[in-house]
């Protein structure tokens, strides 16, 4: 059991300069006995309101240097404070606030919400077991307007999809990776490296791009580049939910539409998923 959707903003001041972390936290516990479920005996139950208050107090006392470290702090607190807790899992996701810049100069206390992917993490620990950390990015919307196709696929009497060698590739990406046993990692640096790998593998070189024969191959290319460049990542899961675009037929309007006006196909949409690990 636990407490979901604990939302708050942590403001840190260094003189006139301000720093913000707005997060959503979910913390779940497993106790040494199931007596509250079986017998209605609540003597071991830590109220979810107490769980919420502990999260807020830890944010006040420790700050949030990174969301991964904050998740670790929460897990360690429950594991060391309550002997009846045998398992704790904490999920933290961050609101994407970025510092405003004016004429290239960073503003000391103003920020802008930039929806270019939501950072999240998980930390979990069993009593007498290692503390394991996961991190990820979700709701990252990506598009390239060419250098993508889909050909040579299996066909039978139910197939109506035409082959395409030049199409828009657009999708919303979810990526989650494991660091394995918790170590003293620079979580900010690693997360930024992974994000850079995602963008590089998806788009290809800036002057020419890179051809994608399928959404599946693109997902695998992203994972392979991350594993080759970021040694701390042990296992990576990726899900790409696809958005398709259809060219508008403008013949009745007396116009030729050479893939200049397209409309998104809202539903149903495609999805592909893959998990890749080091040997």
Automatic annotation (TrEMBL):
Residues that, per the record, bind 5-hydroxyisourate: 48-49, 150, 167, 216, 242
Pathway: Purine metabolism; urate degradation; (S)-allantoin from urate: step 1/3
Protein name (Swiss-Prot/TrEMBL): Uricase
Catalytic activity: urate + O2 + H2O = 5-hydroxyisourate + H2O2
Gene3D superfamilies in the record: Urate Oxidase (3.10.270.10)
Primary location class: other
SUPFAM superfamilies: Tetrahydrobiopterin biosynthesis enzymes-like
GO BP annotations listed: purine nucleobase catabolic process; urate catabolic process
UniProt record similarity statement: Belongs to the uricase family.
Keywords, comma-separated and alphabetical: Oxidoreductase, Peroxisome, Purine metabolism
Gene, per the UniProt record: Uox
Organism expressing this protein natively: Chloroceryle aenea (American pygmy kingfisher)
Recorded GO MF terms: urate oxidase activity
Residues the record lists as binding urate: 48-49, 150, 167, 216, 242
Keyword Oxidoreductase: yes
InterPro entries: Uricase
């Amino acid at each position: 059991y636990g407490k979901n959707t604990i939302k708050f903003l942590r403001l840190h001041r260094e003189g006139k300069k301000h720093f913000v972390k707005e997060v959503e936290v979910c913390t779940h516990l497993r106790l040494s006995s199931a007596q509250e479920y079986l017998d209605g005996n609540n003597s071991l139950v830590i109220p979810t309101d107490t769980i919420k208050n502990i999260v807020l107090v830890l944010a006040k006392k420790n700050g949030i240097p990174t969301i991964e470290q904050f998740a670790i702090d929460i897990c360690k607190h429950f594991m060391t404070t309550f002997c009846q807790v045998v398992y704790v899992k904490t999920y933290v996701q961050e609101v994407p606030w970025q510092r405003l810049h004016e004429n290239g100069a960073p503003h000391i206390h103003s920020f802008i919400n930039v929806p270019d992917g939501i950072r999240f993490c998980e930390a979990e620990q069993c009593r007498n077991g290692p503390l394991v950390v996961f991190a990820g990015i979700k709701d990252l919307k990506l598009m390239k307007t060419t250098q993508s196709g889909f050909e040579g696929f299996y066909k039978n009497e139910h197939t109506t999809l035409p082959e395409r060698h030049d199409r828009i590739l657009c999708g919303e990406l979810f990526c989650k990776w494991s660091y394995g046993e918790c170590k003293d990692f620079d979580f900010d640096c690693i997360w930024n490296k992974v994000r850079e790998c995602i963008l590089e593998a998806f788009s290809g070189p800036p002057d020419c791009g890179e051809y994608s024969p399928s959404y599946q191959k693109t997902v695998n290319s992203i994972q392979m580049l991350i594993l080759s460049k970021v040694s701390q990542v042990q296992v990576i899961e990726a899900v790409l939910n696809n958005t398709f675009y259809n060219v508008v037929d403008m013949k009745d309007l007396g116009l030729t539409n050479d893939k200049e006006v397209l409309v998104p196909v809202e539903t149903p949409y495609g999805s592909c998923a893959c998990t890749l690990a080091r040997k």
